[in-house]
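Hi R.,

Here's the chain you asked about this morning:
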Amino acid sequence: MTRVKADLGRRRRILGGAVCGLVAACAGLALAELASAAVRPESSPITAVGGAVVDRTPVGVKEWAIREFGTADKLLLALGIIVVLGAVAVAAGVLAVGHLPAGIVLAGCFGLVGAVAALSRPEATWRDALPSLVGGLAAAGVLFLLVRALTGPRPVGAPPGGAWSIDRRGFGRLVAAALVASAGIGYAGRRLGAYGSAGATASRADLVLPKPAVPAPPVPPGADLRVPGISPFITPNRDFYRVDTALVVPRVDADTWRLRIHGEGVSNPLEFGLRELLARPLVEHDITLCCVSNEVGGPYAGNARWLGVRLADLLHEAGVRPPSKGGQADQLVARSVDGMTIGTPVETVMDGRDALLAVGMNGEPLPFAHGFPVRMVVPGLYGYVSACKWLRELQLTTFAAYDAYWVRRSWAQQGPVKTQSRIDTPRPSAEPEEGRVAVAGVAWAQHRGISRVEVRVDAGPWHEARLGASDGNDTWRQWVWGWEATPGTHRLEVRATDGTGAVQTGVRTGTVPDGATGWHSVSVRVRPSSRRKA
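And here is the predicted structure, written out as tokens:
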């Protein structure tokens, strides 16, 4: 009986310690959230640790996460960090029940980890470490108080052999009070953070984009084939893909935003705000963007109508010359407000294509998730070497002197878009009925255009598909082929030919270091016609 009571008391102490640890972690996160509202959202512990994890994750793991989870990868990363934090909190609480100083040190260490992670982020200052340090100290303090209440001197009249220094009801009230206080503090931190970004939200809501000096022509009739299941020719903003490293979408106030252009070969450095940028002649252009992480047939491509200022005009004004004309710099390094760096070939930006500092997307100011107030858009290049969002600085340098973020992580310095084609319908494993089946999709080869798309069935002869009308060389083209489907399992493949006459290669390669290659294929099972059965 004595052993049973001892075991029961030990289990209660372990359970009580675990509860103490989790409650202390909640309090620490809440105080850290409140502190980050006074610094910046990126300094909160979960965001800082998550960003540091992204920076140090091997390329293959990143590619797997993007492929499997898409834009939900950031949410899953945050949840994973919370699970790890919970495990550490439980360990700290259980340890503190037996050895209070050791448990407190373990609880405080997570705050130290968050501070180190925050300081490791690009553009970090000493202030970014404060929220994690505050959270770690708060967690250690709350853990101390709870464990003392749990294991301290026993109240008069308490039954022997129990684990509680106060009765269970009193301990429950103490835990509930701590959780309510943590929830209130966390909510206040969220509200203050939202208030801090209210200026950015209002600046976007109040922004009226000027009419373009060079408007884009209307999308030609027939560009959108309107085949059920095919990607729309213009991708709505809400559906446009998003691939970046920002766990928290930056919200930049357009009224305080500034852009600086400087560096090698710049004889006239420029600095201006959004109003000054909007006063310049604006150009409207339809451009398809594609992520280098896009697998063959993947979803990370989209087509939009962009509004912005020609980047080449700004560089000319700054005195920049391309390398082919004796310029000193061959790389344009774009820096984001979140510290991201993206390197773009100067020669490409200045070769006559509509490389833009974009301010509008599909007729409205850029959405926050897509770079408000200003981002880069360069047709013909993958986004990792051209499409910097939340832009704040442009520096002229050389590829030999500086490696941008993704180049330091095994990607190529220069990334021209490769010819790609995709089957949107029928979907993989679809079961269409025999007879006429529309096989349709999109193909792209930005700045070269698409001149032909072909489809084949079961490795047979290639059949030319009907192309939608062209909206220029910088956008994708829809295509459709009418297939007389017969019952059974079949494999459909597609390939495209670009505007120069080069046929898309069928050799399969992965996305690293400069984009995937190969023909997209889908397998379908054709059902016998219901009319034939009748």
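One quick note: The chain is about 35% helix and 20% strand.

Cheers,
M.
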